[in-house]
Amino acid sequence: MKDATYLPRDIAKRFGVGLPKVLGWIQRGELGAVNIASTTEGRPRWRIRDCDLLAFEMRRLSRPPEPSFTRIRRTPAGDVPRRF
């Protein structure tokens, strides 16, 4: 079974960003893409596979912040520790 493929302009439209932003993601390796051009010397013709798009979206999901732990300041004996 074949994966669905998308053009960079389809991805730009889907995320509401410009085409240069999507091409930047591809060049930096953040978004996987396949160059289907007949030669590698000319202008690339990028296609983004469905699995690469899903992986990109999973890496960019927002996550709740990690819980922070309060530290207890050590004080001389007899004093009550203060939390900050």
What does this structure look like?
Helices cover 33% and strands 10% of the residues. The chain is an alpha+beta fold and 84 residues long. The model has no long low-confidence stretch (mean pLDDT 86). Strands 1-3-2 form a 3-stranded antiparallel sheet.
| Total count of helical runs of at least 4 residues | 3
Q: Tell me what portion of residues adopts beta-strand conformation.
A: 5-15%
Q: How many strands in all? A: 3
SSE topology string: EHHEEH
Mind describing the biggest β-sheet?
A: 3 strands, antiparallel
Unreliable segments of 5+ consecutive residues: none
How does the helix and strand content classify structurally? alpha+beta
Based on CA inertia axes, which overall geometry fits?
rod-shaped
The averaged pLDDT comes out at 86
Q: Could you give the distance between the termini?
A: 57 Å
Which strand order do you get reading across the main beta sheet? Answer: 1-3-2
Query: What's the helical proportion of residues?
Result: 25-40%
Oligomer: single chain
Radius of gyration: 24 Å
Task: Give a short overview.
The chain is α+β, with helices and mostly antiparallel strands and 84 residues long. It has a domain at 5-59. It has helices spanning 8-15, 19-28, 50-59, and strands at 5-6, 34-35, 46-49.
